[in-house]
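Escalation from tier 1.

The customer reports that the assembly of two entities below gives different structure tokens on two consecutive runs. Tier 1 could not reproduce it. I'm attaching the input and our single run for tier 2 to review.
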Amino acid sequence: VNGGGTTIAVDAVGGDHAPEAVVEGVARAVDADSRLEVALVGPERVVRPAAEGHVRLTAVPAEETISMDESPTQAVRAKRDSSIVVGCRLVKEGRAHGFFSAGNTGAVLAAGTLVLGRIAGVSRPAIGAVFPTPERPSVIVDIGANADCRPEHLVAFAHMGTAYAKTVLDVDSPSVGLLSIGEEPSKGSTLVVEAHELMRTRVPGFEGNVEGRDVSRGVVDVVVTDGFTGNVVLKVMEGVSATLVSQMREAMTSSPLRTAAASVLAPALRELGRRMDPDVYGGAPLLGVAGAVLIGHGSSGPDAVAAGVATSVTAVRGGLVERIAAAVETD
Amino acid sequence: VNGGGTTIAVDAVGGDHAPEAVVEGVARAVDADSRLEVALVGPERVVRPAAEGHVRLTAVPAEETISMDESPTQAVRAKRDSSIVVGCRLVKEGRAHGFFSAGNTGAVLAAGTLVLGRIAGVSRPAIGAVFPTPERPSVIVDIGANADCRPEHLVAFAHMGTAYAKTVLDVDSPSVGLLSIGEEPSKGSTLVVEAHELMRTRVPGFEGNVEGRDVSRGVVDVVVTDGFTGNVVLKVMEGVSATLVSQMREAMTSSPLRTAAASVLAPALRELGRRMDPDVYGGAPLLGVAGAVLIGHGSSGPDAVAAGVATSVTAVRGGLVERIAAAVETD
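Tier 1 run:
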């Protein structure tokens, strides 16, 4: 770790477009931030040439690769020299301030938990996701680390999501909603009804239950839910957007006149598409482990990687881990 | 119940636009189907004049009304002369073949269960919802009757959804998917992993897990999930569509030239809107009770009411209740 700068370890072989997209994205991130250094982690034949000639890019060899469909915990235990395990180890040893990977989500979760350990008081690390809404982005926790939860886990998710919204989304006093199937505290599953009761007194900014239709409207900064529901919600949002956009594209090009009209609207729709693109928010934070770890989408291109690295820097400089530790301790 | 025709009891005072929208919708449904009779249930001052002069419209007085925000079970127990309770009683007594209400969903669920009773072998009635996908509609069960479920409940939801798809969506051999957070049988909550194991051998047409992003793509005819997740999913779909459409409308009218181009596309987009409008599918079926009961959206206008009544007729004529009974018995 260098003087006043920030060092982010980056998994060179994570994601469908690695290593090219990662190397290109890292170069862009380094160019955009003069106080950023990157430790590029991966097979020597990949990282050595990529770091060549860049003063703020270091090659860190890690010869093994965990593929997207490997069983996470087994792979992390077996492949001690994989880019994901080595990247986490750099953070653990203080040689990097944070880690970004667009690789196997489960493996990053497992390696982050095993190598870095949990923040004191956090029993279940969780994964957050930032998604666009008309006014400003919201964060949802958990999106898949914990398919089965107890009420107290949801309380911790609220603290971690709040810390992330403060650190990365720059919200002073984030509002928090518990995802349920009715606004009344009595509505919902047993898990949610019990969590509501706990959150009422223990979560600053808690505004009660929010419903499915509120999520995309952005009525709260932080949406709290179990990892099963959160994963389904995030993927439903992706799916509906994709289906609707492709249906509209078809409708808008169903005749030459319509195609001409659509071309007039193309810049406005592209701009909207950019505004609603979740990739600009730089990946999904692994919350509750003792280090700033972000997980990129498997399909990450150079822009998404650059955003992920930049967001990792923001998380480090804003003290994400320390904020979570403080929130959990004072709860 | 008349000779060869079908009689549907309709709640005259259910929904935000009742009684006008209901009376108008019923008139349209009756006009469109010469073998349909409707028993219009509600306060005498409303139903008597509405039925006046229509040979296939009968007024059935029920002086009490259960409002949208009343506690369902209490209201159903206390208000024996409410339109919802009386409508269910008409079906129970064989004076109507089915019941449609755009009123308080929980009250229809409670009255349907208490008055009509459950189909033998069904321990938990559920609510289904039909939603549009690019190729053809899908049905999702449960969307809110059961926030907490056991694995065997999901098996019954699959049978009931399959019967509905056969009867109302006219699918010969419906495909069934279990909503989860990964395709592998081992992925998901404990509930879902255990349900998958049961469904594998007991549900005809079972194609395994489906993920959130598959739902709107229509990869299966029947999506099975617990009532908490199903309710959230349905409302997220509504919310994302509404947000996206309003954002696009804004983008497409952000200059005079764009507004002009948008007006060229308006017919195509309206047609798409009609195709993706869930109201055309006639409401949410209450599945597992001993009678054909459909619940309309609270915001139902005349078209939605007419569609709901017509769908009730289809459910009755196609033997929905008998199909569910047979599927549960042979399981």
